[in-house]
């Protein structure tokens, strides 16, 4: 089993595409600047020591060394010795609404970010429960199958946005059905889901879906995000807010928390409903109900010893940087004087 001791450092890898783009921009600028000096072959003869390929080689080595260095900082660890363990837990599925209305800002910075923060805090406090994540808007998708790997769960959570589901809308019933399908009913563990939504459902019968889930032994808890007063739904372009959604009359679309539907879903699913606030998400209350459920003893093997492997990545990065350092940025004058491949006229 592979894990990272300091997984947060891996976010530095997101800089790699930006560095490459910046390098390409500067390289193109230099090529255009040289082209303005005159004919390409004449310029080459005037500055014979300039190499067009070596900067690319040096930059490629630098990028590889940078990636290896970041991986070494994240402290990769390999599990070695295992032990048999027994845990008591339940299966929990997080069902998260990622429709555009969840970007409404009656919860600063918006409803979705508040919901993700609540889920992050939940994962940090989990011990023996398995967790999965279903996201939905117009359609529902399993973002993370049931797992006890909480580090992976946090990584998947960080990637969630309203753009992750291509079909917009709000199909709460389909999301509940998809979450039920994602459970493994053969292991005998108790099942529950926590639905985080503003309750604006336009696609299906969410109450019937919750009722069917409860009949199959799945408890449905609901956390409502939003305010009864509501807030306009912003429009973003490349991460920048450019306006608000408008209706056919040109007025701002106001998204309000559908409190009555959320209550009905929780009642049909045999769970609780809590309207989240800026100070209390209600996640603790929902988890308290999950922990009261009958929990099955599970036998599993867990790694008890992990060996660090950052040394290999660090050493490789150092060697590559040394190689990059000794590669000159210009052509070798000695090789230029030798002119090994010059054909002499007789």
Provide a brief overview of the structure.
This protein is of the alpha/beta class and 346 residues long.
Give structural notes:
The chain is an alpha/beta fold and 346 residues long. The chain folds into two domains: 2-79 and 307-338, no CATH class; 83-300, Rossmann fold (3-Layer(aba) Sandwich). 39% of the residues lie in helices and 23% in strands. The protein is built from eleven helices and 15 strands. The protein has helices spanning 15-35, 40-46, 54-73, 111-125, 150-158, 172-182, 206-215, 259-268, 283-291, 310-326, 333-338, and strands at 2-4, 76-79, 82-89, 91-97, 130-136, 140-147, 191-197, 218-224, 231-232, 234-237, 240-244, 254-255, 270-275, 296-303, 306-308. Strands 6-5-4-7-8-13 form a six-stranded mixed β-sheet, with helices on both faces. The protein has a three-stranded antiparallel β-sheet with strand order 1-2-15. The radius of gyration is 28 Å and the shape is flat. The protein starts with a strand and ends in an 8-residue tail after the last helix. The mean pLDDT is 85.
């Amino acid at each position: 089993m592979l894990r990272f001791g300091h997984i947060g450092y891996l976010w530095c890898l997101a800089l790699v595409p930006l560095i490459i783009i910046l390098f390409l921009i500067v390289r193109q600028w230099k090529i255009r600047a040289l082209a303005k000096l005159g004919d390409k072959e004449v310029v080459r003869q005037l500055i014979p020591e300039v190499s067009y390929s070596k900067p690319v080689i040096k930059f490629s080595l630098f990028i590889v060394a940078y990636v290896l260095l970041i991986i070494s900082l994240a402290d990769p660890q390999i599990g070695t010795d295992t032990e048999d363990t027994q845990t008591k837990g339940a299966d929990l599925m997080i069902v998260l609404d990622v429709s555009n209305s969840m970007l409404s800002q009656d919860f600063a910075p918006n409803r979705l970010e508040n919901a993700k923060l609540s889920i992050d805090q939940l994962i940090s406090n989990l011990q023996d429960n398995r967790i999965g994540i279903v996201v939905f808007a117009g359609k529902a998708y399993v973002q993370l199958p049931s797992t006890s790997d909480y580090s992976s769960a946090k990584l998947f959570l960080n990637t969630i946005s309203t753009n992750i589901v291509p079909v917009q809308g709000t199909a709460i019933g389909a999301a509940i059905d998809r979450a039920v399908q994602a459970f493994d009913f053969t292991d005998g563990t108790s099942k529950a889901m926590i639905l985080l939504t503003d309750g604006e459902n336009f696609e299906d019968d969410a109450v019937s879906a919750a009722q069917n889930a409860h009949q199959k032994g799945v408890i449905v808890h609901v956390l409502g995000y939003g305010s009864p007063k509501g807030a306009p739904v912003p429009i973003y372009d490349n991460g920048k807010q450019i306006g608000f959604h408008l209706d056919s009359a040109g007025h701002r679309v106001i998204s309000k928390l559908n409190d009555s539907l959320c209550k009905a879903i929780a009642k049909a699913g045999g769970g609780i409903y809590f309207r989240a606030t800026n100070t209390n998400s209600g996640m603790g209350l929902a988890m308290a109900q999950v922990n009261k459920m009958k929990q099955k003893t599970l036998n599993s093997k867990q790694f008890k010893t992990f060996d660090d492997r950052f040394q290999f990545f660090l050493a490789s990065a150092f060697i590559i940087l040394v190689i990059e350092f000794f590669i000159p940025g210009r052509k070798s004058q000695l090789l230029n004087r030798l002119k090994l491949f010059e054909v002499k006229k007789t």
